Amino acid sequence: MEVRWQAVTRSRSSFRALRALVLTLGLAGGAACAGDPSGLAAPHYGPWGFDLAGRDLTVRPGRDFNLHSSGAYYRATPIPPDKVAVGGFVTLEELSEARLLALVRDEAAAPGSDDGRRIAALYRGFLDESRIEALDDAPLRADLDAIRATTSRDGIARLMGHSLGRPGGSFFAYEVDADARDPGRNALYLALAGLGLPDRDYYLAPAFAPVREAYATYVRDVLASIGWPDAEAAAADVVALETRIAEAHWPLAQRRDRTRTYNPMTRDALEAFAPGFPWRAWFEGADAAHARQVVLVEKDAFPAMARLFADAPVATLQAWQAAQTVDQASPWLSRRFADRQFAFRGGVLRGQTRALPRDRRAVQVVDQALGEALGRLYVARHFPPSSKAKMEALVANLIVAMRSRIERLPWMHPATRDEALGKLARLGVKIGYPSRWEDYAGLALDENDFYGSLLATMRFKRDRMLAKLDRPVDRAAWGMTPQQVNAYYNPAMNEIVFPAAILQPPFFDPEADAAVNYGAIGAVIGHEITHGFDDQGRKTDGDGVLRDWWSAEDAREFEKRTGALADQYSSIEALPGARVNGRQTLGENIADLGGVLVALDAYRLSLNGSDAPVRDGLTGEQRFFYGWAQVWRTALREEITRQLLATDVHTPAPLRARAPLRNVDAWYDAFDVRPDDDDHVPAEQRVRIW
Predict the structure, then answer these.
(1) Please, are residues 186 and 471 in contact by the beta-carbon 8 Å criterion?
(2) How far is CA 13 from each of CA 87, 130, 245, 271, 281, rounded to the nearest angstrom?
């Protein structure tokens, strides 16, 4: 759903395939920030918005446009040991985090409000390393004692439900969100959970066998650290249990299907449908006993999960719950826990050799817990109103271009076209920051009790979410904070959202060449608009209702075209022996292709019939495509690339710089792409959707 590439560090539930799930990675990479010794200025790219020196002109554009546009940059910019990537996108992540650090330090020194005092409490609490070391595992003892004492299956299910508001494990997870068939009302969605590795493939695919071995050792060490009896045998049982859970999980390509994942039923029907799991106890533990109806995501997997719970030895369920609890809490405990977790999750899974400095991790804690409180400060200091106005004009231009493309589609019949145009006309737009900020009143935090304060923020968020159940959807709410370098399309609200932090170079630079801006932020806008019409977006109408508004003939033609795109991407080798999953990434790939085409049309319209100026020997359209490539300029560690291929609905960023362009005729003309070039696709085989 998002425009960005992301790395998911764990698989708590299947919801990440359905909505924007952004985890701060602590990334870095380069562009100059001229004239600001603080390092808090927006990056600057070349004389007119593109880094000419970063190109590798020995590589033909048609052989590898990513290397052609950024090869010199990659050679000059190694990935630091505490990072998983470098690049233009991640430069902004780093900038956003640096700005947040400055804001948090200011509040810690002199809190300016109740929210400032909450920020200060969490930040100072996490920095009090001596207190955290002295406490060691004390914050976990009550939870671990409860796990050891719970020998009934009802009790274990209740603990599972309770864990959804704190560290711990559950076979199932919930989320309150707009009902897909009735998007004005909130519903309770249930999805599978229970995995300690990033996704089912980590348990089942031969390529991840070394990771599984390392994970078994990690679980053993986790259990041994809390004195669990016979830790080695217990760890083997835990990994075997999770492997069976993984077998029940749907592949990610299926979990992103908006129709298959909408399965409403009553609580009574759920208990009959998936017997063997103490549902009543689970809902009570999750403080969701008032829910009378649920929406199942991976519906046909629920009976298997219930049987798995009923068949698993109680001792195994206890060991699994203990391992999950310790693992999730480890980043906030003493070094013996935090270092062990980083060695596996940062080192084995992501290839990092050094953790971020503690103050940077403290900011991430504050950001996750008090995102909108920080966002309010961020906007006041770093988001000028002029950026919002210019963005609004760009969005309007992109919508005009998209309308024109829909009107000209040769394969779509009038009735379906009218529905598509109606949906586009009702598209909502949010830019910068929310119109109403989240109120944290009632959230009491104490810097002398960091772990307790962190749990309080988790409960606060959970309670706020549950309070929305069966109530009208708040259309003013945002799914991201202003400081997130990201963007998204919300199908239930039929809206596109652009947080403040993305409205900077390399995405958007008011002083940059227009062609570069259209290739960068213009294509991002087009990407999000196209999500309303990708393989899943097309299933909802202009009011956000999940319904089929396509003629049968148009639907078949659309699926033929999108199937060709999926096959094209599935042929791409991201690493030796590791290919892109074209079905898993289909929605994002459709959006990338649509975004480039719509933005190119909008750029051409912006010229008002005049010829584009030539800059440094480059035509307007060449600069447009360079702007696109610069957005996706990213070098990734091999470990994180393999994780992304298994867990992400996006094609890895370096490939996004080049893969969509193979279907864009203007790119061939702009760079004289030849039939013998690696990325050349014959004209009759190029995919044309929107």
Answers:
(1) yes
(2) 29, 34, 12, 20, 20
Residue 360 has pLDDT above 50, yes or no: yes
Mean pLDDT score, 259-270: 98
Q: What is residue 39's predicted lDDT score, i.e. its pLDDT?
A: 72
In which region does residue 442 sit, left (phi positive, over 0), alpha (psi from -120 to 50) or beta (all else)?
Answer: left
Strands 488-490 and 495-499: antiparallel
Residues of 475-496 as b/e, b for ≥16 C-beta within 10 angstroms? eeebbbbbbbbbbbbbbbbbbb
pLDDT at 356 over 90: yes
Phi, psi dihedrals of residue 484, rounded to the nearest 5°: -80, 130
- Percentage above 70 pLDDT, the chain: 94
Q: Do residues 677 and 68 touch, judged by C-beta distance below 8 A?
A: no
Q: Are 294 and 179 in contact (CB under 8 A)?
A: no
For the segment 116-150, what is each residue's pLDDT rounded down to a tens digit?
A: 999 999 999 999 999 999 999 999 999 999 999 99
197 in any annotated domain: yes
pLDDT in tens, 507-556: 999 889 999 999 999 999 999 999 999 999 999 999 999 999 999 999 99
* Integer Rg of the chain from CA: 25
- List, in order, residues 6 or more apart from 227 with CB less than 8 Å away: none
With respect to residue 569, please indicate whether it lies within any of the assigned structural domains.
yes
In a shared domain, residues 264 and 395: no
pLDDT at position 24 is: 25
The token duo for 343 is 């060695």
Same-domain pairing of 537 and 679 = yes
**Whole-number Å distance between alpha carbons of 316 and 236:** 9
CA distance 650 to 507: 18
**C-alpha–C-alpha distance, residues 584 and 588, integer Å:** 9
Instruction: State the Cα–Cα distance between residues 599 and 624, nearest whole angstrom.
Output: 9
Q: How confident is the model at residue 38 (pLDDT cuts 50, 70, 90)?
A: low
Pair (285, 204) in one structural domain? yes
How far is it, in rounded angstroms, from Cα 536 to Cα 1? 10
CA distance 314 to 213: 24
DSSP structure string for 333-347: S-HHHHHHHIIIIII
Q: Kindly give, in sequence order, each residue whose CB lies less than 8 Å from that of residue 398, ignoring residues fewer than 6 positions away.
A: 522, 525, 526, 529, 598, 599, 602
d(CA 299, CA 296): 5
Place of tokens 């671990």: 144
Residues 80, 216, single domain; the answer is: no
Q: Are the C-beta atoms of residues 22 and 7 closer than 8 Å to each other?
A: no
Q: Tally Cβ neighbours within 10 Å of residue 576.
A: 6
Mean pLDDT (whole number) for 224-241 = 98
Q: Encode pLDDT of 55-72 as tens digits.
A: 999 999 999 999 999 999
Within a domain: 173: yes
Nearest residue to 29 via CA among 93, 90, 73, 76: 90
The residue segments making up the domain with residue 246 are 152-329
Number of domains in the chain: 2
In this prediction, residue 14 carries a pLDDT of: 32
CATH number of residue 61's parent domain: 3.40.390.10
Please check whether residues 169 and 239 belong to one and the same domain. Answer: yes
Q: For 309-343, what is each residue's pLDDT tens digit?
A: 999 999 999 999 999 999 999 999 999 999 999 99
CATH number of the domain within which 197 lies: 1.10.1380.10
For residue 1 the two structure tokens come to 């759903």
CA distances from 336 to 62, 132, 226 (A): 50, 11, 11
